[in-house]
């Protein structure tokens, strides 16, 4: 059988790839994808540990809640990105540098 | 090496490989579609962790919802972002990305160290779960998930439904046209 270690290693590598994307990319949508990758790495850990809780299903439950939370976050973030694009005509986070109009 | 292990390594390879393509690729559209592949690989990993309901939810919500949203946002944000994304014809690991690469690599080293030192397979509660047969069975049903969702986890379930509605209203409000009188 597959041990917990293997799942955790996959999750760690995925988390670091997400971190790299967030720090290096110059596009708000790609940064959002990086955040989603990091969230998915966390969810993978929840699911892997949830295997050892048959009665309460704690891990799988909170994985479901985390997926729904990620969906809500993405909807709001994309609305914000569209607004920022309408205002600045760019979605490069480095170029968005003023709060007023 | 049995079939489950082979499937695990295949799924892990697909997931991490497509995530690396997302990280290295210069084309925004290609990276969005490789993210799609990453999500499918993760769903396969969830199935191998005996959480088939979570895997199906992952496919329905992420692939059906979030990915379509991302594609919409990408298309609505115009040709400029596409042009900017395709301008860079630098090699894969350029000097500009070196700080990000160093940060991610050092973080990877630290986290791998933590994982190997944690020895998660011998945690007391995991051993207790194995001893008391509290492990999810291979041919288990999702019956138990539904029951505990409606009993033990009823409060978080309701709270998250309210939060989802707030997010829906907020997103609709944010993306409204500025000049339109509502």
From TrEMBL, chain A:
This is NADH-quinone oxidoreductase subunit K. Gene3D superfamilies: 1.10.287.3510. Belongs to the complex I subunit 4L family. Its main location: membrane. Its EC number is 7.1.1.-. NCBIfam families: PRK05715.1-2. It is a multi-pass membrane protein. The keyword Membrane applies. GO terms for molecular function: oxidoreductase activity. The keyword Oxidoreductase applies. NDH-1 is composed of 14 different subunits. Subunits NuoA, H, J, K, L, M, N constitute the membrane sector of the complex. Keywords: Cell membrane, Membrane, NAD, Oxidoreductase, Quinone, Translocase, Transmembrane, Transmembrane helix, Transport. InterPro entries: NADH_UbQ_OxRdtase_chain4L/K, NUOK/Mnh_C1-like. The chain crosses the membrane at residues 6-24, 31-50, 62-85. It is found in: Cell membrane; Membrane. The gene is nuoK. It is an enzyme of class 7 (translocase). NDH-1 shuttles electrons from NADH, via FMN and iron-sulfur (Fe-S) centers, to quinones in the respiratory chain. The immediate electron acceptor for the enzyme in this species is believed to be a menaquinone. Couples the redox reaction to proton translocation (for every two electrons transferred, four hydrogen ions are translocated across the cytoplasmic membrane), and thus conserves the redox energy in a proton gradient. It catalyses: a quinone + NADH + 5 H(+)(in) = a quinol + NAD(+) + 4 H(+)(out). Coiled coil: none annotated.
Automatic annotation (TrEMBL), chain B:
It comes from the Bacteria. Its EC number is 7.1.1.-. It is found in: Cell membrane. The keyword Membrane applies. It is a multi-pass membrane protein. Keywords: Cell membrane, Membrane, NAD, Quinone, Transmembrane, Transmembrane helix. The keyword Hydrolase does not apply. The chain crosses the membrane at residues 6-25, 32-53, 59-77, 98-116, 153-174. Its main location: membrane. Coiled coil: none annotated. It catalyses: a quinone + NADH + 5 H(+)(in) = a quinol + NAD(+) + 4 H(+)(out). NDH-1 shuttles electrons from NADH, via FMN and iron-sulfur (Fe-S) centers, to quinones in the respiratory chain. Couples the redox reaction to proton translocation (for every two electrons transferred, four hydrogen ions are translocated across the cytoplasmic membrane), and thus conserves the redox energy in a proton gradient. Belongs to the complex I subunit 6 family. This is NADH-quinone oxidoreductase subunit J. It comes from Mucilaginibacter rigui.
């Amino acid at each position: 059988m597959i041990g917990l270690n293997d799942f955790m290693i996959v999750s760690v590598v995925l988390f670091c790839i997400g971190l790299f994307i967030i720090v290096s990319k110059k596009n708000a949508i790609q940064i959002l994808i990086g955040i989603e990758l990091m969230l998915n790495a966390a969810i993978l850990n929840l699911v892997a540990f949830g295997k050892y809780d048959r009665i309460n299903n704690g891990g799988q439950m909170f994985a479901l809640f985390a997926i729904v939370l990620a969906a809500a976050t993405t909807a709001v973030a994309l609305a914000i990105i569209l607004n920022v694009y309408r205002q600045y005509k760019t979605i490069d986070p480095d170029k968005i540098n003023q709060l007023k109009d | 090496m049995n079939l489950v292990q082979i499937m695990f390594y295949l799924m892990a390879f697909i997931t991490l490989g497509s995530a690396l393509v997302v990280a290295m690729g210069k084309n925004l559209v290609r990276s969005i579609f490789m993210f799609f592949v990453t999500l499918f690989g993760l769903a396969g990993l969830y199935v191998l962790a005996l959480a088939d309901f979570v895997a199906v939810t992952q496919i329905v919500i992420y692939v059906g919802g979030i990915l379509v949203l991302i594609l919409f946002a990408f298309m609505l944000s115009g040709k400029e972002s596409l042009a900017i994304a395709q301008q860079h014809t630098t090699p894969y690991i350029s000097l500009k990305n070196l700080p990000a690469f160093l940060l991610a690599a050092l973080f990877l080293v630290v986290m791998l160290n933590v994982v190997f030192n944690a020895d998660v397979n011998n945690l007391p509660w995991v051993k207790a779960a194995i001893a008391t047969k509290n492990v999810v069975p291979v041919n288990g049903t999702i019956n138990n998930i539904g029951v505990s969702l409606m009993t033990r986890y009823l409060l978080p379930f309701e709270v998250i439904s309210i939060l989802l509605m707030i997010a829906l209203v907020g997103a609709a409000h944010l993306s409204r046209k500025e000049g339109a009188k509502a």
